[in-house]
């Protein structure tokens, strides 16, 4: 999943003629960390994802749409270890979204 999101982000960034450094500066991370996100090495939090979407002039849905297009049942065709990796990736994304939701609702209560 990280690879799919990273690839989508990279494609949009390239289409906008932006460098990794330009995007990284605008979202407040190092170029190396941003490169690891694009390469699928690092997971992306909802907070970073929304910042990247803003910089690229797209919606979060425009980026995550790639997850709907990709076959998410690779484990059925025998790809070794695919099901557990996908489950852990989904859990990571769930907890990132949960954390962001809690932060946003806390701000609304303050």
Which helices and strands occur, and which strands form pairs?
Elements: H1 2-15, H2 20-27, H3 31-38, H4 46-56, H5 60-69, H6 82-109
Structure description:
The protein is mainly α and 110 residues long. The protein is 72% helix and 0% strand. α1 (2-15) crosses α5 (60-69) and α2 crosses α3 (31-38). The longest helix is centred in the last third of the chain and has 28 residues, at 82-109.
The helix-strand sequence is HHHHHH
Q: Count of DSSP E strands? A: 0
Please state roughly what percent of the residues sit in beta strands, choosing from under 5%, 5-15%, 15-25%, 25-35%, 35-45% or over 45%.
under 5%
Unreliable stretches:
none
Give a brief rundown of this model:
The chain has 110 residues and is mainly alpha-helical. Helices cover 72% and strands 0% of the residues.
Features:
110 residues; mainly alpha; globular
